[in-house]
Amino acid sequence: xxxxxxxxxxxxxxxxxxxxxxxxxxxxxxxxxxxxxxxxxxxxxxxxxxxxxxxxxxxxxxxxxxxxxxxxxxxxxxxxxxxxx
Length: 85
Description:
Low-confidence stretches: 1-8
Structural class: mainly alpha
Number of strands: 0
Number of domains: 1
């Protein structure tokens, strides 16, 4: 998991973005960054659950859930804009 997280952060920080047309690169960057934050929140939730901090684990899981739904909305917007252009 940490390897995947570091890959997404490296991919976002180096500017290696997929070119889907004008104005879409920044959206892809936001999606990759959002995936990194979702994975980080999930890792935090699992870590705190294993250590017995159930309150913190529930908080991190809630954050990951909210970020996941925001990610889905952004992804849908990007796909619609890409199909229309």
